[in-house]
Amino acid sequence: MPERSEVEVEEVAKLRVFLVDDHDLFRAGVRAELAGRVDVVGEAADVEGAIAGISSTAPDVVLLDVHMPDGGGAAVIQAGSASSSTVRYLALSVSDAAEDVIAVIRAGARGYVTKSISADELVVAIQRVAEGDAVFSPRLAGLVLDAFAGGAEQGIDPELDQLTPREREVLRLIARGYAYKEVALELSISIKTVETHVSAVLRKLQLSNRHQLTRWATDRRLV
Amino acid sequence: MFIGLVLLWRRSAPERKSQLLAELRDLRARRISPTVAELLGHGADAARSGRPELKTLARLTLGVVFIVAGVGAFAATSDAFRAVRDGVIAMLVVLVGLVLIFGPWAWRLASELAEERRERVRSQERSEVAAHLHDSVLQTLALIQKEGNDSQQMVQLARRQERELRAWLYGDARPHDAGSLARALSAVAAEVEDTHGVAVEVVTVGDCELDADLEPLLQAAREAVVNAARLSGDKTVAVFLEIEPDGVTCFVRDRGVGFDLETVPDDRKGVSESIIGRMERHGGTAVIRTAPGEGTEVELSIRRSEKAEASA
């Protein structure tokens, strides 16, 4: 998901970021990589510490590990969104397992990136999430296309349970490795429109009752 | 009789060991208590602490008394059964005695056996994990320590190890047949990663059987990935594979130097031929989109055969 050229956009006020990961080494690594580009206001190694730290520091964005003891990232999001709705969450994990991705997104994360992401890409992702947009890596786009594949089902809400052709188009390009800017160029639309489409997909992913979504996540379908 | 049963059980244990282990693992996965002892009473814990299982004994004795009473009542109503009744009563009395004497011992033995078997499963799992980590992670770490100054090689080693460990830890929820197109493409990507030291990110949507009709697409995709890895200068190659009921599409994209399609040097013309030519010979299409400095994207598509479509 490289978006190298977009990084040059310097924020006037640095974004306040909170790190949650049970691996000290990884937190230290991210902190070093982000140094000077965002303001790391705190970090926590467990769910309890994260909930307390987030409510006391009120960061713009929480970088959240998916796998942690006592409920993982989803538990932090659930507790956090009950007390404050302005904090935004970006999931960061080594796991590509579909059920993990779906679980953390449905809990309320605005994006999901893998830990192999470069520092530049991570900063762009943090900025994007802070602005309320969604961050889709190629892998997440692929997962969503897979999850929403197939025709309409009976007794479902077509508004939420299906992707529009345009959304599908955008997701396909992201899955092919296009950055948002490149997607916009390819489809002759603005970056803002790309972000609107992706946010709509995120909303569907979070709210859809499509039973296939959950079933699919645990038992990936064979076409 | 009890002794006989226990002996038989014990003797049969080694032959059935592997089967039992498999069954146990299955039971553990479903969280069902696996031992006979646990069904009869408090099982392993009580047996280990050496406390007599009075409650269980009382329960069993009561059960035997009821059976004796029932058979006795039946026999008392008919004189013809008098002899039989006497014999049966005598037998039952002996049986009750046997149960009282050998019962607790038999249960303890059974629970010990179960405990021992569980321990064996545990230690076998431990040694499997240890063996795997030794073959994979420890070997890689040793290699990295030895050849620590070649960063390119270290990245390659780390990536290969990550891939293997990930596959081992999370498994692949897709069907494990070797004939899956998605798996075949992932294998191709892994091979190119190892040979050329670039990251190949594969995203797949859907999956299908890798039949003869799809083989050209796989080969062409491989060619495209190798080209991107060798010539683009980019550190990452993005591969997207989408399998739909009526056809398969694959995109291979890099953000590298790109090239001018009109003035392709001879050494690359052949390569392009092996992608475009191969796809067209098999009824598919290949489109290459590139320009100097713009990176390269290869789009491969092929229709699925009627037969595959029907079975999908």
Largest sheet of chain B: 5 strands, mixed
CATH topology (fold) name of the largest domain in chain B: Heat Shock Protein 90
CATH architecture descriptor text of the largest domain in chain B = 2-Layer Sandwich
> What number is the mean pLDDT of chain B?
77
> How large, in whole angstroms, is the Cα Rg of chain A?
17 Å
Q: Give the full name of the CATH homologous superfamily of the largest domain in chain B.
A: Histidine kinase-like ATPase, C-terminal domain
Overall 3D geometry of chain A? globular
Tally of structural domains of chain A: 2
Which structural class should the secondary elements of chain B be placed in?
Answer: alpha+beta
N/C terminus separation of chain B: 57 Å
Secondary structure: number of strands of chain A: 6
- Tally of distinct domains of chain B: 2
Average predicted confidence as pLDDT of chain A? 81
CATH class of the largest domain in chain A: Alpha Beta
Largest interface: A-B, 25 and 25 residues
**Could you give the distance between the termini of chain A?**
27 Å
> Tell me, what's the shape of chain B?
elongated
Residue share in helices of chain B? 55-70%
Uncertain segments of chain A: 1-8
* Secondary structure: helix percent of chain A: 40-55%
Secondary-structure-based class of chain A equals alpha/beta
